[in-house]
């Protein structure tokens, strides 16, 4: 097998997958096993454990009584799940199912439950919601879902190497944007798409969330972060649907990642997880800060985050 690629570009991974006539996931698993001097079975088993943790988030996260430690959020996944399972969704069971699962994982995170950072805690609901919804709605086997996580991880590696996964460095485009791109790629592979279609889905998902700021109310990864996870998985399905239809991104994935880095660098520090701008600086945002911390002295920074990576 030819491992003539690295994690500096999506294009190099796609080209290697095509050259070896493999899905991206199989290529990544084989390359990582060789690089880490471990068996493919051992690496797959570890990834499967992560998938199982993701699966275990849904029930507790969508409980009626789940509440964040701050008291600001909780119960949204329960409401969305009732709509999804009651047949009353405007968008159908697939999208509604993805929305409640994304909310469930994010609300479990806010209540200090056990989650998988994918790639961060602040964006933890997007990839699990995509994978678990494909499993539930499209009958994708667990094995395929676990393998798709290798594809998603490779995409995340490229973004981390060329831009950032941290809201404190690049805004929420770096967190929920990266997660949406990772999820879009995973969905395409699960749906039988080609490596090149994976690349286009990554580009579409990421450019559609370009410029999103990180403005956590009271410095907590709850408002608006939890709902942005729902929006992120919706965007991932949109990008995957377009790519699977043969629609291509005019701007290649690697150039979109480059653009995200430049946008993040240009973004004001008030919009990068400091809770000094955006929604956090609104009158209601400041009132919620006072409600949680008993002070309205200003925006207060990231009080209890867990949302960013690689600061």
Automatic annotation (TrEMBL):
Q: Does the keyword Nucleus apply?
A: no
Enzyme Commission number(s) = 4.3.1.17
Example GO molecular function: 4 iron, 4 sulfur cluster binding
Q: Among the record's GO biological process terms, what is one?
A: gluconeogenesis
Q: Which domain of life is it from?
A: Bacteria
Q: Required cofactors, per record?
A: [4Fe-4S] cluster
Q: In which pathway does it act?
A: Carbohydrate biosynthesis; gluconeogenesis
Which reactions are catalysed by this chain?
Answer: L-serine = pyruvate + NH4(+)
Supply the name of the protein.
L-serine dehydratase
Whichever gene encodes this chain, its name is: sdaAA
């Amino acid at each position: 097998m030819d491992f003539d690629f690295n994690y500096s570009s999506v294009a190099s991974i796609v080209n290697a997958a095509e050259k070896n006539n493999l899905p991206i996931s199989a290529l990544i698993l084989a390359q990582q096993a060789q690089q880490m001097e471990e068996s493919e079975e051992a690496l797959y088993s570890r990834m499967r454990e992560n998938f199982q943790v993701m699966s275990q988030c849904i029930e507790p996260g969508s409980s009626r009584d789940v509440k964040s430690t701050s008291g600001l959020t909780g119960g949204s996944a329960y409401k969305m799940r009732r709509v999804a399972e009651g047949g009353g969704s405007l968008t159908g069971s697939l999208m509604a199912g993805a929305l409640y699962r994304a909310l469930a994982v994010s609300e479990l995170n806010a209540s200090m439950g056990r989650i998988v950072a994918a790639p961060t805690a602040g964006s933890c609901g997007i990839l699990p919601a995509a994978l678990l919804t494909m499993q539930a709605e499209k009958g994708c086997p667990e094995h395929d879902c676990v393998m798709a996580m290798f594809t998603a991880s490779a995409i995340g590696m490229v973004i981390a190497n060329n831009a950032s996964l941290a809201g404190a460095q690049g805004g929420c485009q770096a967190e929920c944007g990266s997660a949406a791109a990772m999820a879009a790629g995973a969905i395409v592979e699960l749906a039988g798409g080609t490596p090149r279609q994976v690349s286009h889905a990554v580009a579409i998902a990421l450019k559609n969330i370009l410029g999103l700021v990180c403005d956590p109310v009271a410095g907590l990864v709850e408002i608006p972060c939890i709902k942005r996870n729902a929006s992120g998985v919706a965007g991932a399905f949109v990008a995957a649907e377009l790519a699977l239809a043969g629609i291509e991104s005019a701007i290649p994935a690697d150039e979109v990642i480059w653009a995200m880095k430049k946008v993040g660098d240009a973004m004001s520090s008030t919009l990068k997880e400091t809770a000094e701008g955006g929604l956090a600086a609104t009158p209601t945002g400041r009132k919620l800060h006072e409600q949680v911390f008993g002070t309205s002295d200003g925006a207060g920074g990231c009080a209890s985050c867990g949302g960013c990576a690689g600061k």
